[in-house]
Amino acid sequence: MSIRRSFFSKYALWAASWMALLLPLVSHAELAGIDVPGSKRLTVADWGGAPITLWYLRGADTKADAPIVFVMHGVGRDADRYLAEWRDIALTNDIVVVVPEYAQNHFPGSEGYNFGGVFDEAGNLQPKARWAYSSIEPLFDALRRHENLSAEQYWLFGHSAGAQFVHRFVMLGVAQRMVAAISANAGSYMFPVNDVDWPFGLRGAPKGGDAGIFASPMVLMLGDADSDPNHRSLPRQPAAMAQGPHRYARGQNFYGTSRQIAERTGQTFNWSCVIVPGVAHDNAGIARAAIRIIKGWKPTPGADCAP
Hints:
The protein is of the alpha/beta class. It is built from 9 helices and 8 strands.
């Protein structure tokens, strides 16, 4: 595999400001399998694929034009836990948080969720309207109608398997009304190279949008402690292992390679990268950093992402 690994100079900008945000949150064990106070559910069955239940939270005083943030859950398909970890953030910052639940029986395995259901079990390309990626826009419309919301765009955040969903969604040009995406602590990536097979490269991937794979705004967010090469859910396919020994290294490699390719080919590069110090593979910790971006803080486009 010819994926190049890029490492940059010492990265210290923003570190002090991030540390103040990373306060202890409720543990995953405490959140598992419980209802989230104030949350609602809405099942959407008319988007073109299997039914998807939205777990969402809108505070009593949250205005109709409040920002809408889609939060993509991880491999556990635990929408309730993800919503619980975002609950205080949502209520404190007057945003609407919605976590779509991609149930295992409808979106099986990595192929059905992380990789967007782009191909069926026989390896045949699915109609685009049936891709899991294609559900976001109609889910956005369904939520707006149901809650009488007026926001015209949405944010898209994903952690772990959800981050795999998010960055491939961005690179395939599926977004139409997205403000920006935040892809946090993905376990593997679709590198923008033509000599590596989908879903780890572009060879055999469906054609993306006409604007180019780097055109949609995206922030790659990496916890610098997400560096366990033996983590139980770390993807271990040969193509994934070639990207780096752990998630932190893979994210750096992906971002550096993507930026170099964009510069060499003259493509518009609307991505940026942020390292969150002291955070490992933890959606809750990353969420406390991500809200700064959603509330208006703008990382430097194209900034190097290095330790």
